[in-house]
Automatic annotation (TrEMBL):
Keyword annotations: Carbohydrate metabolism, Hydrolase
InterPro entries: Glc/Gal-6P_isomerase, Glucosamine6P_isomerase, Glucosamine6P_isomerase_CS, NagB/RpiA_transferase-like
Keyword Hydrolase belongs to the record: yes
PANTHER family the UniProt entry points to: GLUCOSAMINE-6-PHOSPHATE ISOMERASE (PTHR11280)
Gene name of the encoded protein: nagB
Organism per entry: Geosporobacter ferrireducens
Associated pathway: Amino-sugar metabolism; N-acetylneuraminate degradation; D-fructose 6-phosphate from N-acetylneuraminate: step 5/5
Protein name as catalogued: Glucosamine-6-phosphate deaminase
């Protein structure tokens, strides 16, 4: 694991964007795995600036998002499809037809999961997967559990995830209780992984995922066995390691 320590969120976002931009420049047909949540927002803002100011070219890039809330249509303001358009896709020259996000309202959700995994394979797999991390250790929505699933699947969100994500909704009751998420296998098959974490509430979990033990109770701990992982953390986290 390559760990990069930065001063603050601004620098974290710069690092995140520069690692993604490097991938986009060296491989204009790259397949990027993308995340939502608060952590990558600054990274997406920087990528938008790089596109507008330096012509960073997304025209042949393909993207697969990690997850989507079950039951939210793509035009729902809290859906991850909407998030991606608002924060990245609408502001760069990516072709929307090359951006994939699980369909949270598919009539046959099992079929949708299978289709999503097949699509990732068809496009040659993910070159660079961007990840945030839940304070409980989830990546994508692979929650702490007795077992971790390999492929894309429907998952019951953990209570603490529902509570954490309620900040984006009017009330905790409105937060969907399930999501469609890429599995641990799809994430681990990515050629490179970039995990971004900041703020002291992520310190405990970051120390667990780099401590040399691997447990399904800390899903992100499996990243220790991936050959090309970069973790960018801020000073607040590093001070507590
Ligand atoms: C989002 C995702 C989640 C988030 C995690 C951290 O697509 O897959 O694993 O990365 O919940 O969220 P933030 O960044 O809001 O702390």
């Amino acid at each position: 694991m390559n760990i990069i320590v930065v001063k603050n969120y601004e620098e974290l976002s710069e690092q995140g964007a520069s690692i993604i931009a490097r991938e986009v420049k060296t491989n204009p047909n790259a397949v990027l795995g993308l995340a939502t949540g608060s952590t990558p927002l600054g990274t997406y803002r920087k990528l938008v600036c790089m596109h507008k100011e330096e012509g960073l070219d997304f025209s042949s890039i393909t993207t697969f998002n990690l997850d989507e809330y079950y039951g939210l249509a793509p035009n729902h303001e809290q859906s991850y499809a909407y998030f991606m358009r608002r924060n990245l896709f609408n502001h760069v020259n990516i072709q929307l037809k090359n951006t994939y996000i699980p369909n949270g309202i598919a009539a046959d959700i099992l079929e949708e999961c299978k289709r999503y995994d097949e699509l990732i394979e068809e496009k040659g797999g993910i070159d660079l997967q961007l990840l945030g991390i839940g304070a409980n250790g989830h990546i994508g929505f692979n929650e702490p559990s007795e077992e971790l699933l390999i492929g894309t699947h429907l998952v019951d969100l953990a209570e603490n995830t529902i509570k954490a994500n309620s900040r984006f909704f009017h009330s905790v009751e409105e937060v969907p209780k399930q999501a469609v998420t890429m599995g641990i296998g799809s994430i681990m098959k990515a050629k490179k992984i970039l995990l971004l974490a900041c703020g002291e509430n992520k310190a405990k979990i970051i120390s667990k995922i780099i401590d040399g033990k691997c447990s399904t109770k800390v899903p992100a701990s499996i990243l220790q066995i991936h050959p090309q992982v970069t973790i960018v953390i801020d000073k607040e986290i590093n001070d507590q390691l």
